[in-house]
Amino acid sequence: MQRRLALPLLLACVLAACGTAPPGLRRPAAGRLDPEGASDVAMHALGLVGTPYRYGGNTPDGGFDCSGLIGYVYRHGITPVLAPRTVAQLAGWGAEVERDTLRTGDLVVFGSRATHAGIYVGEGRFVHAPSTGGTVRLDRLDGPYWSRQPVAFRRP
């Protein structure tokens, strides 16, 4: 009888552990990343420009896809933050902000159904991992391609 109860209890404990942030990481309340942390996020993202793109990638050594880049940058900042792993999840993370209130460290989420994301670094620019065969790069929101895309802005 005790064995039958032990397995479900063990399974419940393991699943509960999957839903918690690792030690040292935090999940911020919407819009709670302080200005120092936001600036650190932007600087860290800029430092990764040139890293190869890799679908599913989430490290500088292995390469990045767009959401892997965002997760890595937020996880390794002054105040480590556990970011969602997919673009669809990033589209609902934090608080929505208007274009005229953007600050460094905010997320830029493209597509009417959230298909791509990057990190705003100021002066109308964002860092992102664009596509297979490319590298992490710095682009402008008002550039010929990106200015025609539906975009939303989020503040973690």
Quick rundown:
The protein is an alpha+beta fold and 156 residues long.
Describe this structure in words.
The protein has 156 residues and is of the alpha+beta class. Helices cover 28% and strands 20% of the residues. It is built from 4 helices and 8 strands, in the order ααββααββββββ. The strands form 2 sheets. Strands 3-8-4-5-6-7 form a 6-stranded antiparallel beta sheet, covered by helices on one side. It has a two-stranded antiparallel ribbon with strand order 1-2. α2 (35-47) packs across α3. Residues 1-30 have low confidence and may be disordered.
| Structural class by SSE content | alpha+beta
For this entry, what is the oligomeric state of its chains? single chain
Radius of gyration: 17 Å
| Total beta-strand segments | 8
